[in-house]
Specification:
The complex is a heterodimer.
Chain A (H helix, E strand, L loop, with lengths): L2 E6 L3 H12 L14 E4 L4 E6 L3 H8 L4 E5 H10 L5 E18 L20 E4 L2 H10 L6 E4 L14 E6 L2 H6 L3 E16 H6 L3 H7 L9 E2 L20 E6 L4 H10 L4 E4 L4 E7 L4 E6 L4 H6 L5 E5 H10 L5 E6 L5 E8 L7 H9 L5 E5 L2 H10 L5 E5 L14 E6 L3 H5 L2 E3 L4 E3 L1 E6 L7 H20 L1
Parallel strand pairs in A: 1-3, 1-4, 6-7, 6-8, 11-14, 11-15, 18-19, 18-20
Antiparallel strand pairs in A: 2-3, 4-9, 5-8, 5-9, 9-10, 12-13, 15-23, 16-23, 17-20, 17-21, 17-22
Helix pairs in contact in A: 3-4, 8-14, 10-12
Chain B lengths: L5 H20 L3 E2 L5 E3 L1 H4 L6 H4 L4 E3 L8 E4 L4 H10 L6 E10 L8 E10 L5 H16 L5 E6 H11 L3 H14 L12 H10 L5 H11 L4 H19 L3 E4 L10 E10 L2 E9 L10 E7 H8 L8 E6 L5 H13 L3 E4 L9 E4 L4 E5 L2 E5 L2 H9 L3
Parallel strand pairs in B: 1-5, 7-8, 12-13, 12-14
Antiparallel strand pairs in B: 2-4, 3-4, 5-6, 6-11, 7-9, 9-10, 10-11, 14-15, 15-16
Classes of the chains: A alpha/beta, B alpha+beta.
Chain lengths: ~475, ~375
């Protein structure tokens, strides 16, 4: 019987690859340089699948994989919210230690050490890439009327204007200091964990892998230290200025296209170019405040009035509006760059070329159709529109091409050229939308500087025109 | 989640009716609050404990772009207090509700039904006596012999305060007492002979006389406990003198963040059917004090389901298609007389049925068949079996 092992991509990949080599586990195609997301080692009866770390505990809990290796923090993040999941931690493997800290905005007046009281924190905005852990912190501290803001990344960039507290992964308290935040308490410490599906552990022989990994195990145990409220009464929350225009720009892959648009629009920045960025770039227009955050988080930030303008993708905006139809966010300028199509992606052997041909096949499966996507609300809207009644939507955080066909029937995915889809033995049926980068605003702007907002938008209009002309 | 099928619903309605009747007799008026509430309502100080909050069903609503979370109502007391405050109902206000609450549980049963009352702004002692009376009369009506177990949060609070310690230690002790009862303090008090003796005595459930003994042990050393014991005594003795079975049980585990004074548990045959007590409603603008209690409607319904008979439904059997219209008229006449009747065929007839033909009605009863021509006569006959 084949053992299915889920392994992490990203920063953990070289560490885990070295670990597997030490254990004598054949893991060709898992080298850090490889782009392969799934490999089968028939002689060892082993199937390897590479995921974003966050998805590994979920996939193991679902029973799609027998064993997994991931950071403890992602396992705890799942188990804090879903304690009944069928996933167990077998033990620690050697690897880097990770900490999660509760940090305060420096503008709050909080100092390292003494914790503010529950009432002093009333209404605090807390931002985190680990929302379940952050939620547990707030609940344990009995913070009245706290507001949790789950984000895809760049949590440290939010204070003071956009958050009062941050729960963030880091290495040391010094690292928190270095990012300009006040460390209040370490709330979690863990390392690399070997995890298993609890049903598989009881019913299937995983011995060939466990036997090799067991000698490497360490005695480390992850620690969750939820903070208790203290007696500190000083904790100032920050209000954004309304006499400025706040502009959010994307980091990561979207950066290159955004820089080009800014240049075409006559809005050059300092601290933000195609390859590098600081969290708070500057431009030559007085009264414009800029911050660099994840594009996926921008519709929410504009909706709440934290930002007045943001450069994101039509995909992210549509996902947001599918989820929150009454959101006050709207598209202001289509910048026309970073163009790609989004549609249902299936295995290349799937006997249909269009969605219309595929729907009867999906509907006839006699079981829930598994739809994986980084755009869960969009995926949900897609299956609703096509009347595919019996579905399971699987929200994922990346490494998406590896999900079909074993772990999902359909992938709702974006593709610029289709190269990656073809390379993974997949094909896209008819795309249902085209995404470009775009500028979004709030229907009723939060800023009082309508003139300045118009000036910024005019720059982006010029950038859009430049694309049309070219 | 569990279905309530006809037998279960019949028993459930009996519980509901008993409670509604008792609450109404004491002047309480019914309210209903939304199933979906904002999450922040329950995070206010003194609302739900972290353990409870970690078991709520919370999510972002369709308009949740602001990050504002909502919950499926995990508790009714807090929403009822909110509703009364928002509507500026004059105090004191007597309200009752029959509502479902949703909390994660490791069993499949994650929806509970509560029959509860909230006496907002309730005067001291009067409030306690009233809520206990409503609970007891509800249980009386179901044929259960209620026992009222009483305690006072102030006794444990006084003991924890006497131990000293920082906020975190104090909170840890409260959590332990909330989960395990007063006995959780026994070890911590080992070096305080008199206080340890007080706990030892307090842990033995007894009658009202127990409170006199506790008063004697606490006086001098624990003035805060003394006032709590005396307050509890006035409630317990009034209940006992009114003929209720009262057990003083200071070992009752209760939520310290929520309750502030006398607390109750209502039992019969060793089984707990609900509880309540004096509390400080959470949230801005809410009254300073209130008394409330809740009965576990679903558990009560399960308990009495064996003694809840099936309703009598008379089968109206049309002898021929030409008798259908007359059959409807017979059914309507029985309905007006308060007798349930439904059209049926000759094979599935219950003990009572009426065969309807154009010129004759034949009533089939356990006493035999009777042919009649007047509709009123048939109704009169069948009413005897109602």
């Amino acid at each position: 019987m084949t053992i299915k092992l889920a392994l992490p991509t990203g920063d953990a990949r070289p560490i885990v690859a070295a670990l597997l080599e030490r254990a004598g586990i054949a893991a060709s195609n898992y080298e850090p340089s490889s782009r392969v997301l799934r490999s089968v080692h028939e002689e060892d009866r082993l199937t390897l699948r590479i995921f974003r770390e966050k998805d590994i505990p979920i996939q193991v809990a679902l029973g799609n994989y027998d064993l997994g290796i991931c950071s403890d923090v992602w396992l705890s993040e799942l188990q804090l919210r879903f304690p009944l999941q069928r996933v167990v931690r077998i033990g620690s493997l050697p690897g880097p230690k990770n900490q999660v800290w509760l940090c305060a905005s420096p503008a709050s007046g909080a100092k390292p050490g003494p914790m503010p009281s529950s009432n002093a924190l009333a209404g605090a905005r807390i931002v985190s890439e680990l929302p379940n852990l952050a939620d547990a912190v707030c609940v344990h501290m009995r913070i009245p009327a706290y507001r949790l803001m789950p984000v895809f990344g760049a949590a440290d960039a939010y204070p003071p204007e956009d958050a009062d507290l941050v729960v963030m992964p880091t290495t040391t308290s010094q690292d928190v200091d270095d990012r300009g935040l006040t460390p209040l308490q370490r709330v979690y410490e863990g390392g690399l964990a070997l995890i298993a599906n609890s049903d598989a552990l009881g019913a299937k022989s995983l011995a060939p892998l466990l036997g090799k990994l067991a000698p490497l195990m360490t005695g480390d145990v992850p620690r969750l230290d939820l903070p208790a409220p203290g007696r500190g009464t000083t904790f100032a929350t920050f209000q954004r200025r309304l006499d400025v225009v706040r502009l959010a720009l994307p980091d990561g892959h979207a950066q290159r296209h955004t820089v080009a648009a800014l240049n075409d629009g006559g809005l050059p920045l300092t601290g933000y170019d195609a390859n590098h960025s600081v969290r708070r770039p500057t431009c030559g227009i007085p009264g414009v405040e800029i911050k660099v955050v994840r594009p996926q988080d921008m519709p929410g930030l504009v909706a709440t009035g934290a930002f007045d303008v943001a450069v994101t993708g039509v995909d992210g905006l549509t996902e947001h509006l599918c989820r929150f139809p009454s959101s006050p966010v709207k598209l202001a300028v289509d910048l026309g760059r970073s163009r790609y199509r989004i549609g249902p992606v299936v295995d290349k052997s799937f006997p249909a070329e269009t969605t219309a041909q595929a729907v009867p096949i999906w509907s006839g499966l006699g079981r829930p159709v598994r739809v994986a996507s980084e755009y869960p609300a969009l995926a949900d809207a897609f299956v609703r529109e096509w009347h595919v009644a019996n579905t399971t939507i699987i929200p994922i955080s990346g490494a998406s091409e590896g999900f079909v066909p074993e772990d999902a029937d359909i992938l709702i995915e974006g593709s610029e050229t289709g190269t990656s889809i073809r390379a993974n033995g997949l094909k896209m049926l008819d795309p249902f939308m085209e995404s470009t980068n775009c500028v979004i605003v709030r229907r009723e702007p939060a800023t009082s500087r309508g003139d300045l907002l118009a000036q910024v938008l005019a720059g982006f209009e010029r950038a859009a025109q430049a694309v049309v002309v070219s | 989640m569990r279905d309530l099928l006809p037998a279960g619903m019949r028993a459930f309605r009996r519980v509901e009716d008993s409670f509604r009747s008792a609450a109404s007799c004491w002047g309480y008026e019914e309210v209903r609050t939304p199933t979906i509430e904002t999450y922040r309502l329950f995070t206010a100080a003194g609302a739900l404990t972290p353990q409870m909050l970690s078991r709520v069903y919370s999510f972002l609503d369709w308009d949740g772009w602001s990050g504002e979370r909502v919950v499926l109502r995990p508790d009714s007391t807090i929403p009822v207090a909110r509703a009364a405050t928002e509507a500026q109902l004059p105090l004191p206000t007597r309200l009752f509700y029959v509502q479902n609450v949703f909390r994660f549980s490791e069993s499949d049963d994650r929806e509970d039904w509560q029959c509860g009352i909230e006496f907002l702004g309730a005067p001291e002692t009067i409030g306690e006596l009233e809520v206990a009376a409503v609970a007891c009369e509800s249980l009386d009506a179901l044929g259960l012999a209620p026992e009222v177990r009483v305690s006072h949060i102030g006794v444990a609070r006084a003991l924890v305060a006497a131990l000293g310690g920082d906020d975190q230690t104090e909170r840890g002790l409260y959590d332990r007492v909330a989960n395990e009862g007063l006995g959780a303090l026994r070890q911590a008090l080992a070096s305080h002979a008199r206080l340890a003796a007080l706990v030892d005595v307090a842990l033995r459930p007894g009658s009202v006389a127990l409170l006199d003994n506790l008063d004697a042990l606490a006086s001098g050393d624990l003035p805060a406990a003394t006032s709590a014991i005396r307050e509890l005594r006035s409630v317990a003795s009034a209940l006992a003198e009114s003929g209720r079975t009262v057990v003083v049980d200071l070992g009752l585990p209760r939520d310290f963040e929520y309750y502030s004074g006398v607390v109750f548990e209502f039992t019969s045959g060793g089984q707990s059917w609900g509880g309540g007590g004096r509390y400080r409603p959470a949230g801005p603008g809410t009254p300073d004090t209130a008394c409330g209690m809740g009965l576990e409607a679903k558990q009560l319904a399960e308990h009495i389901s064996g003694t809840t008979g099936e309703p009598l439904v008379v089968a109206i059997i049309p002898a021929a298609p030409s008798a259908l219209a007359r059959s409807l008229a017979v059914a309507r006449a029985l309905h007006r007389g308060g007798v349930a009747a439904a059209l049926g065929g000759p094979t599935d007839g219950p003990p009572l049925s009426v065969t309807v033909s154009r010129d004759q009605l034949i009533a089939h009863t356990p006493n035999g068949d009777r042919a009649m021509s007047a509709l009123d006569d048939v109704v009169g006959l069948l009413l005897q079996f109602k």
